[in-house]
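Look over both lines:
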Amino acid sequence: MRGITNLGFPEALRWRGDWLWFSDMFTGKVMRVNLDESMETVIDVNEGGPVMPGGLGWLPSGELIVVDCLERRLLKLTKESNLLLYADLSELTTYPLNDMYIDPYGNVWVGGYGFDPEIDLPRPSPLFRVFENGRVSLSVDKFIFPNGCEGFGDRLALAETFADRLSFLNDQGKILEQFHLPSGFGPDGISYDKHGNLYIASAFLGSLDCLSNDGKFYNVIQIPRLDDNFNSGGPLGVFDCAAHPSLPVLAYASASANENYARLNDTGEIHFIKI
Protein backbone atom coordinates (compact mmCIF):
# COMPACT_ATOMS: atom_id res chain seq x y z
CA MET A 1 0.00 0.00 0.00
CA ARG A 2 1.23 3.48 -0.87
CA GLY A 3 -0.52 5.24 1.98
CA ILE A 4 -3.08 8.02 2.29
CA THR A 5 -2.22 11.73 1.94
CA ASN A 6 -4.05 15.09 2.05
CA LEU A 7 -5.71 14.40 5.38
CA GLY A 8 -6.22 16.98 8.08
CA PHE A 9 -5.02 15.51 11.38
CA PRO A 10 -5.51 11.71 11.48
CA GLU A 11 -5.70 10.19 14.96
CA ALA A 12 -7.34 7.27 16.80
CA LEU A 13 -6.23 4.60 14.32
CA ARG A 14 -8.08 1.32 14.88
CA TRP A 15 -8.28 -1.85 12.81
CA ARG A 16 -11.68 -3.50 12.45
CA GLY A 17 -11.28 -6.52 10.20
CA ASP A 18 -9.36 -5.31 7.16
CA TRP A 19 -10.58 -1.73 7.54
CA LEU A 20 -8.46 0.88 9.29
CA TRP A 21 -10.72 3.37 11.04
CA PHE A 22 -9.52 6.80 12.14
CA SER A 23 -10.68 10.24 13.23
CA ASP A 24 -9.62 13.17 11.07
CA MET A 25 -9.81 15.51 14.03
CA PHE A 26 -9.42 18.85 12.27
CA THR A 27 -11.92 18.11 9.49
CA GLY A 28 -14.58 16.64 11.78
CA LYS A 29 -14.74 13.21 10.15
CA VAL A 30 -14.53 9.58 11.17
CA MET A 31 -13.24 7.61 8.18
CA ARG A 32 -12.07 4.16 7.24
CA VAL A 33 -9.74 2.78 4.58
CA ASN A 34 -9.17 -0.82 3.54
CA LEU A 35 -6.07 -2.61 2.32
CA ASP A 36 -7.02 -1.73 -1.27
CA GLU A 37 -7.00 1.96 -0.26
CA SER A 38 -10.74 2.39 -0.77
CA MET A 39 -11.79 5.13 1.67
CA GLU A 40 -15.18 5.97 3.17
CA THR A 41 -16.48 8.71 5.47
CA VAL A 42 -18.62 7.20 8.22
CA ILE A 43 -19.32 10.25 10.42
CA ASP A 44 -19.16 13.88 9.25
CA VAL A 45 -19.51 17.12 11.22
CA ASN A 46 -21.64 18.45 8.35
CA GLU A 47 -24.09 15.60 8.96
CA GLY A 48 -24.42 15.90 12.73
CA GLY A 49 -21.08 14.47 13.83
CA PRO A 50 -18.77 16.06 16.42
CA VAL A 51 -16.63 19.06 15.51
CA MET A 52 -13.53 17.25 16.76
CA PRO A 53 -13.85 13.46 16.96
CA GLY A 54 -11.23 11.59 18.99
CA GLY A 55 -10.84 8.05 20.27
CA LEU A 56 -12.73 5.18 18.63
CA GLY A 57 -13.72 1.72 19.80
CA TRP A 58 -16.43 -0.91 19.61
CA LEU A 59 -18.71 -2.29 22.30
CA PRO A 60 -19.15 -6.07 22.55
CA SER A 61 -22.43 -5.51 20.67
CA GLY A 62 -20.44 -4.20 17.68
CA GLU A 63 -21.63 -0.61 18.01
CA LEU A 64 -19.04 2.12 17.47
CA ILE A 65 -18.20 4.58 20.25
CA VAL A 66 -16.53 7.87 19.31
CA VAL A 67 -15.18 10.56 21.62
CA ASP A 68 -16.61 14.03 21.09
CA CYS A 69 -13.53 15.86 22.36
CA LEU A 70 -14.81 19.43 22.65
CA GLU A 71 -18.25 18.63 24.08
CA ARG A 72 -16.66 16.11 26.48
CA ARG A 73 -19.00 13.24 25.76
CA LEU A 74 -19.15 9.81 24.13
CA LEU A 75 -21.38 9.12 21.14
CA LYS A 76 -22.65 5.76 19.91
CA LEU A 77 -23.19 4.93 16.25
CA THR A 78 -25.95 2.38 16.13
CA LYS A 79 -26.21 -0.39 13.56
CA GLU A 80 -28.91 1.75 11.93
CA SER A 81 -26.31 4.57 11.54
CA ASN A 82 -27.91 6.79 14.17
CA LEU A 83 -25.52 8.83 16.31
CA LEU A 84 -26.71 8.86 19.93
CA LEU A 85 -25.37 10.13 23.24
CA TYR A 86 -23.67 7.30 25.16
CA ALA A 87 -22.14 9.18 28.12
CA ASP A 88 -21.82 12.83 29.09
CA LEU A 89 -18.59 13.60 30.98
CA SER A 90 -18.83 17.40 30.75
CA GLU A 91 -19.49 17.81 34.48
CA LEU A 92 -16.34 15.84 35.36
CA THR A 93 -13.82 17.92 33.42
CA THR A 94 -13.63 21.38 31.86
CA TYR A 95 -10.91 20.32 29.40
CA PRO A 96 -11.29 18.39 26.13
CA LEU A 97 -11.41 14.62 26.07
CA ASN A 98 -8.96 12.72 23.90
CA ASP A 99 -8.32 9.03 23.25
CA MET A 100 -9.97 5.93 24.70
CA TYR A 101 -9.94 2.15 24.88
CA ILE A 102 -12.84 -0.29 25.24
CA ASP A 103 -11.95 -3.45 27.16
CA PRO A 104 -13.45 -6.91 26.44
CA TYR A 105 -16.14 -6.31 29.08
CA GLY A 106 -17.43 -3.17 27.38
CA ASN A 107 -15.88 -0.70 29.83
CA VAL A 108 -14.76 2.50 28.09
CA TRP A 109 -11.53 4.04 29.43
CA VAL A 110 -11.30 7.71 28.43
CA GLY A 111 -8.49 10.21 28.90
CA GLY A 112 -8.57 13.98 28.67
CA TYR A 113 -6.23 16.95 28.56
CA GLY A 114 -6.53 17.79 32.26
CA PHE A 115 -5.01 21.23 31.61
CA ASP A 116 -4.46 23.69 28.77
CA PRO A 117 -1.04 22.91 27.23
CA GLU A 118 -0.85 26.42 25.77
CA ILE A 119 -1.01 28.29 29.08
CA ASP A 120 -0.86 25.86 32.03
CA LEU A 121 1.86 23.85 33.66
CA PRO A 122 1.19 20.10 33.34
CA ARG A 123 -0.96 18.65 36.09
CA PRO A 124 -2.40 15.18 36.65
CA SER A 125 -5.92 14.06 35.84
CA PRO A 126 -7.73 10.71 36.06
CA LEU A 127 -8.94 8.26 33.46
CA PHE A 128 -12.71 8.05 33.24
CA ARG A 129 -14.18 4.56 33.22
CA VAL A 130 -17.64 4.31 31.69
CA PHE A 131 -19.49 1.05 32.41
CA GLU A 132 -22.10 -0.38 30.05
CA ASN A 133 -24.81 0.43 32.59
CA GLY A 134 -23.88 4.13 32.37
CA ARG A 135 -22.02 4.39 35.67
CA VAL A 136 -18.78 6.41 35.57
CA SER A 137 -15.83 6.02 37.92
CA LEU A 138 -12.42 7.71 38.13
CA SER A 139 -9.14 5.82 38.07
CA VAL A 140 -7.31 5.32 41.36
CA ASP A 141 -4.20 7.10 40.07
CA LYS A 142 -3.84 10.27 37.98
CA PHE A 143 -1.76 10.97 34.90
CA ILE A 144 -0.13 13.82 32.98
CA PHE A 145 -2.19 14.26 29.79
CA PRO A 146 -3.46 10.65 29.52
CA ASN A 147 -3.55 9.91 25.81
CA GLY A 148 -3.29 6.66 23.83
CA CYS A 149 -4.37 3.59 25.78
CA GLU A 150 -4.72 -0.07 24.91
CA GLY A 151 -5.05 -3.35 26.75
CA PHE A 152 -3.10 -6.56 26.48
CA GLY A 153 -3.75 -9.48 28.79
CA ASP A 154 -4.84 -8.17 32.18
CA ARG A 155 -3.09 -4.79 31.92
CA LEU A 156 -3.82 -1.44 30.33
CA ALA A 157 -0.98 0.57 28.78
CA LEU A 158 -1.34 4.36 28.85
CA ALA A 159 0.76 7.09 27.19
CA GLU A 160 1.33 10.21 29.29
CA THR A 161 2.22 12.73 26.61
CA PHE A 162 3.61 15.56 28.73
CA ALA A 163 5.41 13.25 31.18
CA ASP A 164 7.36 11.26 28.55
CA ARG A 165 6.33 7.95 30.04
CA LEU A 166 4.15 4.89 29.70
CA SER A 167 2.10 3.69 32.64
CA PHE A 168 0.80 0.13 32.96
CA LEU A 169 -2.39 -0.18 34.98
CA ASN A 170 -4.61 -2.81 36.54
CA ASP A 171 -8.36 -3.00 36.00
CA GLN A 172 -8.95 -0.28 38.60
CA GLY A 173 -6.68 2.21 36.88
CA LYS A 174 -3.93 1.83 39.48
CA ILE A 175 -0.31 2.02 38.30
CA LEU A 176 1.55 -1.29 38.36
CA GLU A 177 4.75 -0.07 36.70
CA GLN A 178 6.05 2.71 34.47
CA PHE A 179 8.50 3.03 31.59
CA HIS A 180 10.29 6.35 31.14
CA LEU A 181 10.89 7.50 27.57
CA PRO A 182 13.56 9.90 26.29
CA SER A 183 13.07 13.54 27.27
CA GLY A 184 10.90 15.40 24.77
CA PHE A 185 9.46 12.19 23.31
CA GLY A 186 5.79 13.09 23.75
CA PRO A 187 4.15 9.64 23.51
CA ASP A 188 0.78 9.91 21.80
CA GLY A 189 -0.99 6.90 20.26
CA ILE A 190 0.06 3.36 21.17
CA SER A 191 -0.76 -0.10 19.84
CA TYR A 192 -0.03 -3.68 20.83
CA ASP A 193 0.62 -6.32 18.19
CA LYS A 194 -0.56 -9.90 18.68
CA HIS A 195 2.76 -10.81 20.37
CA GLY A 196 2.50 -8.11 23.05
CA ASN A 197 5.02 -5.71 21.52
CA LEU A 198 3.92 -2.14 22.18
CA TYR A 199 4.34 0.43 19.38
CA ILE A 200 4.53 4.08 20.41
CA ALA A 201 3.97 7.20 18.29
CA SER A 202 6.09 10.22 19.22
CA ALA A 203 4.20 13.47 18.67
CA PHE A 204 7.21 15.66 19.46
CA LEU A 205 10.17 13.76 17.99
CA GLY A 206 8.43 12.46 14.86
CA SER A 207 9.30 8.83 15.43
CA LEU A 208 7.68 5.45 15.78
CA ASP A 209 9.26 3.22 18.40
CA CYS A 210 8.63 -0.14 20.00
CA LEU A 211 8.81 -1.50 23.53
CA SER A 212 9.15 -5.24 22.91
CA ASN A 213 7.52 -7.90 25.04
CA ASP A 214 10.94 -8.65 26.60
CA GLY A 215 11.51 -5.02 27.59
CA LYS A 216 13.75 -3.81 24.76
CA PHE A 217 13.14 -0.30 23.40
CA TYR A 218 14.08 0.48 19.79
CA ASN A 219 13.29 2.83 16.91
CA VAL A 220 11.13 1.66 13.99
CA ILE A 221 10.64 4.84 11.92
CA GLN A 222 12.21 8.28 12.19
CA ILE A 223 10.75 11.05 10.05
CA PRO A 224 13.53 13.42 8.86
CA ARG A 225 13.50 16.70 10.80
CA LEU A 226 14.53 18.88 7.88
CA ASP A 227 12.29 21.91 8.31
CA ASP A 228 12.07 23.68 11.65
CA ASN A 229 10.26 26.71 10.20
CA PHE A 230 6.81 26.51 11.76
CA ASN A 231 5.51 29.17 9.35
CA SER A 232 5.74 26.54 6.60
CA GLY A 233 4.34 23.74 8.72
CA GLY A 234 7.56 22.79 10.44
CA PRO A 235 8.61 19.24 11.28
CA LEU A 236 6.16 16.38 11.30
CA GLY A 237 4.97 14.52 14.37
CA VAL A 238 3.85 10.90 14.50
CA PHE A 239 0.54 10.99 16.33
CA ASP A 240 -0.84 7.46 16.30
CA CYS A 241 -0.25 3.89 15.16
CA ALA A 242 -2.20 0.66 14.89
CA ALA A 243 -0.90 -2.89 14.50
CA HIS A 244 -3.15 -5.18 12.47
CA PRO A 245 -4.58 -7.91 14.73
CA SER A 246 -3.54 -10.79 12.46
CA LEU A 247 -1.35 -9.51 9.60
CA PRO A 248 2.25 -8.23 9.98
CA VAL A 249 1.11 -4.72 9.07
CA LEU A 250 1.24 -1.52 11.08
CA ALA A 251 -0.33 1.81 10.17
CA TYR A 252 0.99 5.10 11.48
CA ALA A 253 -0.30 8.66 11.14
CA SER A 254 1.74 11.84 10.79
CA ALA A 255 0.97 15.53 10.36
CA SER A 256 2.57 18.90 10.97
CA ALA A 257 3.61 19.24 14.61
CA ASN A 258 2.44 22.86 14.35
CA GLU A 259 -1.23 22.26 15.08
CA ASN A 260 -2.26 25.81 14.14
CA TYR A 261 -0.77 25.23 10.70
CA ALA A 262 -2.31 21.74 10.50
CA ARG A 263 -5.78 23.16 11.17
CA LEU A 264 -5.54 25.21 7.97
CA ASN A 265 -3.49 22.90 5.76
CA ASP A 266 -3.93 19.22 4.93
CA THR A 267 -0.58 17.87 6.16
CA GLY A 268 -1.95 14.57 7.49
CA GLU A 269 -0.83 11.21 6.12
CA ILE A 270 -1.30 7.54 7.00
CA HIS A 271 1.36 5.03 5.98
CA PHE A 272 1.54 1.25 6.21
CA ILE A 273 4.67 -0.77 7.00
CA LYS A 274 5.50 -4.42 7.57
CA ILE A 275 6.45 -5.45 11.09
